[in-house]
Write a structure and sequence with these properties.
mainly alpha, 4 helices, 113 residues, 39% helix, 2 domains, single chain, globular, Znf_FYVE_PHD, Znf_RING/FYVE/PHD, two-stranded antiparallel sheet, HTH_CenpB_DNA-bd_dom, DNA-binding, Herpes Virus-1
Length: 113
């Protein structure tokens, strides 16, 4: 796509898409952060050269946008069951119910706030 070279070979990226879509069928909607973390882990474990953020251990937002353009079946904006975990009590909540941005790394639920 454009001037960007994809990080993953076609088969590996297809496996990532299939895995993400499979999790959605199990009612475990992934946030964009989850997918960016998965992409980072997949690249590192396969020794693929990348420009992902090593401090945050996640793929960049530009990678995610490009990924979503290549795979329109994955669209976190239409995933109604996206979940987020409280960093204090570790309980899960729907992002919509929690009224939070799904890209946050430090969500604290109303009970722990």
């Amino acid at each position: 796509m454009g001037n960007y070279k994809t990080v993953f070979p076609l088969e590996l990226e297809k496996d990532l898409v299939d895995y993400v879509l499979h999790l959605e069928t199990l009612m475990y909607g992934l946030t964009t952060n989850d997918v960016r973390n998965l992409a980072y882990q997949l690249a590192v474990r396969n020794g693929l050269p990348n420009s992902f953020n090593k401090d945050k251990e996640k793929a960049g937002k530009d990678w995610l946008l490009s990924f979503m353009k290549r795979h329109p079946a994955f669209n976190p904006k239409t995933t109604q069951d996206a979940m987020i975990q409280c960093t204090v009590c570790l309980q899960w909540a729907h992002t919509k119910c929690a009224g939070t941005d799904e890209d946050t790394d430090d969500f604290i639920c109303d009970f722990c706030a």
